[in-house]
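HUMAN: Spend a minute on the protein record below and explain its fold to me.
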Amino acid sequence: MHIYLDNNAATPTDPRVLAAFTECSAHPGNPNSTEHAAGRSARRRIAAAAEAVSNLIDARPEQISFLPGATAALSLVIDICVGQMGVSTIAATTADHPAVLNRLGTLAQDGLSTALAPVDQRGQVRLDALELLVRNRRPQLVCLIAANNEVGTITDLAPACRIARKAGALVLIDACQAAGKVPLSFQALDCDFLVLSGAKLYGLPRTAALASSYDFAEPAKARFGSPDAPGAVSLGEACRLRAREMRDDEARIATLRDHLENALHSAFPDMHVNGDRDRRLAGTLNFAVPGVPNDAVLARLDGQLAMSAGAACNSGADQPSHVLRAMDAPSWVLEGSLRIGIGKFNTRDEIERASHLLISTIDSIRTVRSGRHR
């Protein structure tokens, strides 16, 4: 029986979210067509969805825009900052998501100045280095990731935001992994932009929301067309459910993760866990066992256990994780790291079976490899 443990890549859609999407899809109407009842109804549904999103992240409903995916949302913010707001230098961290780093790389080829702040061995941004970078390079936009998608480290955002704000920089927070899993406050962080993803909080793929202190309605319409009412309604429902159920779900998920981690550590005392174990997403376990390549484990468990070696957007890449390299991980960790993402639909029985599969597979690979090296 197949066990899905890749919730960092994409969470299964909650049936209640799918029901909300289906119900809204049955009602035609373009939210821009306000001269008739169907269009006005679609607009009201989007407004209600915006309120649900704003409640989850402590923003105001009028600050919410709906966009077709988090990568699209992050790219739109960066492009508007560069093209319309006069931003010529952007800072990020070395462990940011490829959606941000790749966009900055593309813009750098066109002359944009970029700077990357290092992270420590836990994946936390080094605040001293960020402060020095901001003082010397004077970026007009600073990009931060609320929770790392590979190792699960939850960023200490408040001091990082204060450093950027003190220098007069705009702040963009990629909250895709964090939203719906840990409490977030757009208002308290005093940031300018915050992006969340439906695909990471049991919503539909290709649904995302942007909270912004600037009006993004027209830029979003110009790039993506009319707002998608069913998509917005589905994301609103996902956020409503997370606001209500997040606390209990995440506590149970953390218990499942700890059970799996303890079982693996008992079998392999030399196992290394990546990330900040004191500030980590409840469902994330990123680990490596010496002498066991991750590709060998994934190949043997294909069809039985879904997990990954890192970010889904880099799947199939020859290079090791840029996050682990930024954390100065040793070569054996780079070659052996496996990412498990546990979600609210996973059961204790699945975790038990997953631990047995992982232990037997890793032990078998170790046995084979030790025989080769005699």
Summary: Residues 13 and 363 are 34 Å apart (CA to CA). The chain has a mean pLDDT of 94. The chain has 13 helices and twelve strands. The radius of gyration is 21 Å.
